[in-house]
Each structure stands twice: as C-alpha cells, then as structure tokens.
Task: structure prediction
Amino acid sequence: MKKILIFVLCITMMLSIVGCSNKAEEQDLGSDDNPVAGKVMSEFTTKDIEGNEVTQEIFKDKKITMINVWGTFCGPCIEEMPDLQKIYEEYKGEDFNLIGLVADVELGNDPKEATEVVNQTGVKYKNILVNEVLNEEILSNFDYVPFTIFVNAEGKILDTMVAGSLSYEGYKSKIDTLLKNEK
Amino acid sequence: MELGKFKRKIVQIITALVTNANFKGFFEGKIYKGSLKKSCVPGLNCYSCPGAVGSCPIGSLQAVIGGFKYKMSFYIVGMMMLMGTLLGRFICGWLCPFGLIQELLNKIPSPKIKIPKIFSYIKYVVLIIFVILLPIVFVNDLGMGDPTFCKYICPAGTLEGGIPLVLTNPPLRDSIGNLFFWKIFLLIGTIIMSIITFRPFCKAVCPLGAIYALLNPISVYRYEIDKNKCISCGLCAKTCKLDVEVYKKPNSLECIRCGECISICPQNAIERKMNLRSK
Result:
C-alpha cells in the first residue's frame, strides 16, 4: 500500500511542478534555455536539396541567419513553412537570412520527399541536408522538430530559439528584437 | 498476495522496466533513438517516454498512416498480428506497462464501481476512427494527417512522454498550450477512473487492446474449460475483474488472461493451453 501511495504522490508532485513552472515561465519570456546556445558552429560542408554545396560560409554574409529545423514526416513543420517563406520574402533586404535544415535526410541520401515538401509549400529559401557536424552540433541536442535557432555572422548560436512551431507574428517579433540587439 | 497474482505482478514490473530500460533518459530528458526503436514493444508504451527502448505499435501505425510516404504500415500490422495471434490479450494482462500502472492505481482504497459492458465497444470506435480514419481523411496538401489518437487522446503518452519531457526540457515548457492541458485533463480523468474501477482505459479506450481483443478468441495461447469438471458454479465469473463469464466463454474478447479465475476454480476446470486448434 505504501508503494502505491508514493506512486500517487509522485504523480501529484509532477503535475503540480508542471503547473507551477508554467506560470513562472510566462512571466519570464526572456530565458529560453537553448541547449546549443553559445556554441560556435564548426566548419562543415553539406549540400542543399538541389545539390549545391553549402558550408559555414553561408552565415558570413548576414548579421542573423535563422535555421529552421524540420522533418519530412512532421505535419506541424510543413504547416508553418508557407509562413516562413513569407518571413524570408519580407526580410530579404535586411541583414537577415533564413535557411531550412532537413532533419531526416542525411547528406548522400535522395532528398525527393524534401523536394516534394518544398515545392508543395512554395518555399524558396535554401534547405540543407544533415551531415555529421550538423547532426553532432545541432540535431543530437534535440528530440523534436520543428525548432528554430539563430546564428550570427561568426557562426555563433544565439540564446534565442523557438521550440516547436510559432506564428508569423511570433517569428517577426523575435527577428526584430534580434536584429536590434545584435551589433 | 497469492502466488499466481504475485507471479503476474513480477512479470509486469520486469516488462515495464525492460521496456523502459533507458533510465538515464529520465534524468537527461532525452529520448533513446537507437536502432531498437525501429521495432515495437507488445504493449502500449509511448515512443516519447525517455526510458522507452522500443516504439509503441499504435504510435508507429499512426505515424506511418499519417505520413505521406506510405499509406499503411504492413510491418507494424504484421507485428501486431503475430503477437496478437500468439498471445492475444495475454499481452494486456502481463506485458503492458500502462496496464500495470492502472492496476497499481486501482489498489488505492476507494469505493469501487463497475463500468457498463457497452463501454467496452468504445475501443473499437477509437481504433477505427481515431487511429485509422482521421489520419487518412483529414490531411494537408501533401496527404499528411495528424496522429489523432496519440495527439488528442492517449493518456499513456501524456504520463510517459509529455510530462517527463516537459519537466526536463525548458524550451518545450515554453511551448505548452491548450493541447497539453487537455491531455493533462484526460490523464487526471484516467487516473481517477483507474482508482475507482479496474483498468478503465483497457476496457473502454485502448485501440491496441481492441486489436488484441479481436485476436483473443483465435490466439494460440488460450483457456479451455474441462466440461467434465466444470459445475457451472459461476465463481470464475464472479471473481473476474473484467466481467467475463469464463465458464461460458473462456476466450472472451475482454479476457486479459490474468488467471484469477484459474486460481479460484474449485474444480480446476479451467486450463491454460498453447495450441492451434481448440478441441
């Protein structure tokens, strides 16, 4: 009987922790606890879904590069891609770039599903495939897609991130803040 | 606790531990993603449980049906058919971690109720509508559907996957919304129901239980009544927590093979059998 009571207590505690911590989080929207924050991306060479070579140089040209990580199996990822395309269009002239990282297509594999998704959603920004470096430094730290991280011109991953999908306005406000704050 | 029940509890606990042997996942808040996950465990155990070393058959089935690469996962259906035709609902009674959780909850002293028999048909509706039809019918432009059962119903997913991951993952905590609270509400409902009635989720909701139930009457592992011994006293039916009239229907859809009827039968008229044909 004792065991069962402990079990029930555990569940009650877990539930109350979830309940409380949520409230705390709402007050403090600044902290994101990004597991990859502060990391500087190593050199890497991968390809986009069209077969063009892409390296860490891609970050150099812009102050902020937003990396949206998605999977071809993931409904919510694909659902937000038209919004991301709108973001891409809107910030084209600014010091900002957006790329996609296809979490479930490794370099060397046929990206035909990813291409199908990209065509269907009307996405025009670059979508790159996973290689060892990208897997080790980004993907292995997350258990879910979509998520979005931001990298500066030196290839350093910033604190701000988005877990899961976000609204068009939500992305815009994050990007605006980042563009303002990043020197 | 008498020996038969004790043996079953031990098997249930061992299976729950083996199924969720990636213990460090609970501390790190990370899911094991190795090659064992390409295979399913027999019971309902969420893929997203940090400890899980295998996938959930229902979750896998939904993921494939909802994806746009394939229409149906013959691999998963095959595995379920194989396990179901070998063992039937023995899996529910002995090998399912979520069944164990409900049984432990039921040990909490409280007034107990019985749920009406008609409720046991709900699980077939859940299987057909939420697991199979909705992910096929409600699709985006690419033909992808939501894993409706996992997303909107399954309390095992909330308990084993949702809560541990949200607790250990601050970015995920930021992203919770109404869906999470809906699932918590269902989980609390399931917990309360489990305290006051025996295995309510298995009886009424579980789509995996529904599949194994349909295979229960034809599975290799089965119960048989020795007509020469049975005196139709009805003790087996009275003791059965799933309201099966064992002496009339030893291989009922609802029987989870817990074996309590076998222990109580004064005539030892109920036998466990492993055979392809009933006599």
